[in-house]
Amino acid sequence: MTTCGIVLAAGAGTRFGGPKGLARAGDGTPWVATVVRTLRDAGCDPVIVVVGAAADAVAALVPAGAVVAPAEDWSDGLSASVRAGLSAAAETPAEAALIVPVDVPDLTASACRRVMAGAGRASLRRARYEGAPGHPVLIGRDHWYRVAAELTGDRGAGAYLRDHVADAVECADLWHGQDVDHRAAPA
């Protein structure tokens, strides 16, 4: 089965203090480059990066070979980013999409592979960390249109995944599952 990766990097990051698509690790590596590499290492092809706030600056950080997909209506919230990602995915032969936000620079390829394992066009899967839902999320191609149609405002696919009883894939032994909501304090 072919799976594309979708990195959601379109938000303004108001709580974070700026677009997370521009965030960098302590060594200067852009989070977006790290997350793209992780998805590639997991076997995702292609990897799509959804941009919005500071679109040109974020796109400049996207590694060669990854697809940049603009979310023109990014200010409408997370739903716009997911829709843009799924729309770009529909232009590929992928049978599923593995979706992650850009603010998970510590995400492991092994957690991605576990969520992807055995998935198909009709699959809905979501990583769990000690029972709490997290990322990555896998959405089979058969669901893309319905997911996109149901999304509104600053909400992702969580309600759809709950309503359609997505498979829970425990990944706490592979990664902590936490996104980064605040900038690290200067040393």
Automatic annotation (TrEMBL):
<dbReference type="InterPro" id="IPR029044">
    <property type="entry name" value="Nucleotide-diphossugar_trans"/>
</dbReference>
<feature type="domain" description="MobA-like NTP transferase">
    <location>
        <begin position="5"/>
        <end position="164"/>
    </location>
</feature>
<dbReference type="Pfam" id="PF12804">
    <property type="entry name" value="NTP_transf_3"/>
</dbReference>
<dbReference type="InterPro" id="IPR025877">
    <property type="entry name" value="MobA-like_NTP_Trfase"/>
</dbReference>
<protein>
    <submittedName>
        <fullName>Molybdopterin-guanine dinucleotide biosynthesis protein MobA</fullName>
    </submittedName>
</protein>
<dbReference type="GO" id="GO:0016779">
    <property type="term" value="F:nucleotidyltransferase activity"/>
</dbReference>
